[in-house]
């Protein structure tokens, strides 16, 4: 496994492999890799001749006052994991390499104004821009994203479609701790007490999955899930929402593929979780 | 020469050629081709194994009330010209093929808020988006743009740089009628009287080129050029400006590479012209 830190070197190496007819899989990450990332990397390794893991803590998707500076990092451990899983390259540029007096950006209407986009107004513009850059640098055949960031996945799919990127977007299921907590780099912020309290998100998600049925009013489903969240005094609910899984518009009832998602603060840590409801018909 | 109308067919044909190691040149146009376009196509044919001319009247770069509906079209003549010049493909999609419930877009800060961007607020967002799409569909090695649309050329260069597109942007000089008028599809809007009056733009540009010298105050240069424009009663000046040729910021004096540009209405037709001043040092 080789670490590449410059865009020109990444292009040189990857174009040569492309000319040889090799397929390339890309796993875009912000580092501090956990088993969720590992599941993406494993798939990229299995499905492509070359697997590239980008480790780049992208400043443009964090607003002023968000946790960019506090975000956990452990590049050595990230490299060890990538090596162990059989990744071919880790692409690890400095922010100055990626954004040198940059003014162009990629954005998307209406899918990005709800849910996470409502809470974090510049977030998805930063995500779309950095993913576009990574697509242009790596030119992957396939790119792997976790279902944990469900809205991000929907937005990337729409961006690829709208801008005609030649990339197959592969969504991968949420990976959970044994007690249900969705794996996240941000779990490291949790105190021992908060860590215990944080299981309330997945318990609420599981309860939602259990009771959801075709035609169920969204308000009833949200009510059931809020009921579980209310049992945990440390939980501060930001939203529990039911949206169309493709276009992210709010749904009144479970009559189409639906993203059921939540953001909850446990102490000062903001966590997200979700499930996708698939109608039986 | 072959006409392609769908994105999937363009990708299929062009990826096959790419795999064979062929180089691809792209000339993005809105059709109604004139000698200015011809000069771009000739260069694309000369410098690449495959030359693709896109003929697409892009609706997203026209605002409400602009001349989208009136914009001249002659697809048969366009094809004949492309054939004669040795182009390999004409890519001619319907608007519905290019924008199917589209929400993603590409934009650029501050370079696009001055000059043409000030007069046409959504214009460059439309240009950046459609050019990004064409780059992703065609995957050209080189793309050809005219210096006539100087700000567009600067913006495309910056976009390619910022988003790491694997495309070499080639700028080509303005092509003029024998009396100096810059070639433009919009010249067809001019009445016989207006056509004569329209030479005042190039006369002003030539006067500017004549008097420009290192360190000259921008206001003095603009004054000289406005003086020429004032001689034509049919001319309604929108702007004559001196800007940094790279970042499009206004310049006080000719102390760096400068774009000296104008927009002038002749009757109801809006025309543009420009020259680039290169300091001697």
From TrEMBL, chains A, B:
Name recorded for this polypeptide: Pantothenate synthetase
Compartments where found: Cytoplasm
Record field: catalytic activity: (R)-pantoate + beta-alanine + ATP = (R)-pantothenate + AMP + diphosphate + H(+)
Record's keyword annotation contains Ubl conjugation: no
Residues annotated to bind (R)-pantoate: 61, 152
Pathway annotation from the record: Cofactor biosynthesis; (R)-pantothenate biosynthesis; (R)-pantothenate from (R)-pantoate and beta-alanine: step 1/1
Residues engaged in binding ATP: 30-37, 146-149, 175, 183-186
Keyword entries, A-Z: ATP-binding, Cytoplasm, Ligase, Nucleotide-binding, Pantothenate biosynthesis
GO cellular component, one term: cytosol
Function of the molecule: Catalyzes the condensation of pantoate with beta-alanine in an ATP-dependent reaction via a pantoyl-adenylate intermediate.
InterPro entries: Pantoate_ligase, Pantoate_ligase_C, Rossmann-like_a/b/a_fold
Subunit: Homodimer.
Record-level Gene Ontology MF annotations: ATP binding; pantoate-beta-alanine ligase activity
Residues involved in beta-alanine binding: 61
Additional remarks: The reaction proceeds by a bi uni uni bi ping pong mechanism.
Organism ancestry: Bacteria, Bacillati, Actinomycetota, Coriobacteriia, Eggerthellales
Catalytic residues (positions): 37 (proton donor)
Family: Belongs to the pantothenate synthetase family.
UniProt xrefs under Pfam families: Pantoate_ligase
CDD domains: PanC
């Amino acid at each position: 496994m080789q670490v590449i830190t410059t865009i020109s070197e990444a292009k040189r190496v990857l174009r040569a492999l492309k000319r040889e007819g090799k397929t390339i899989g890309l796993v875009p990450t912000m580092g501090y890799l956990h088993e969720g990332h590992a599941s993406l990397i494993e798939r990229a390794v299995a499905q492509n001749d070359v697997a590239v893991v980008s480790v780049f803590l992208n400043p443009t998707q964090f607003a002023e006052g968000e946790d960019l500076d506090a975000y956990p990092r452990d590049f050595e451990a990230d490299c060890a994991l990538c090596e162990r899983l059989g990744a071919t390259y880790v692409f690890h540029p400095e922010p100055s390499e990626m954004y040198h007096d940059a003014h162009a950006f990629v954005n998307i209407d209406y899918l990005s104004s709800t849910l996470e986009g409502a809470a974090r107004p510049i977030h998805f513009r930063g995500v779309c821009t950095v993913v576009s850059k990574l697509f242009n640098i790596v030119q992957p055949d396939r790119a792997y994203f976790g279902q944990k960031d469900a809205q991000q996945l929907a937005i990337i799919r729409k961006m690829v479609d709208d801008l005609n990127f030649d990339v197959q977007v592969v969504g991968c299921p949420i990976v959970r701790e044994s007690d249900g907590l969705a794996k996240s780099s941000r779990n490291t912020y949790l105190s021992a007490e908060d860590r215990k309290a944080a299981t309330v998100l997945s318990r609420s998600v599981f309860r939602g999955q259990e009771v959801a049925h075709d035609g169920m009013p969204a308000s009833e489903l949200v009510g059931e899930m809020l009921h579980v969240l209310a049992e945990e005094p440390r939980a501060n609910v930001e939203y529990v929402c039911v949206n169309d899984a493709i276009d992210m518009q709010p749904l009144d009832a479970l009559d189409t593929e639906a993203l059921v998602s939540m953001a909850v603060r446990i102490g000062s840590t903001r966590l997200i979780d979700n499930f996708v409801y698939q109608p039986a018909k």
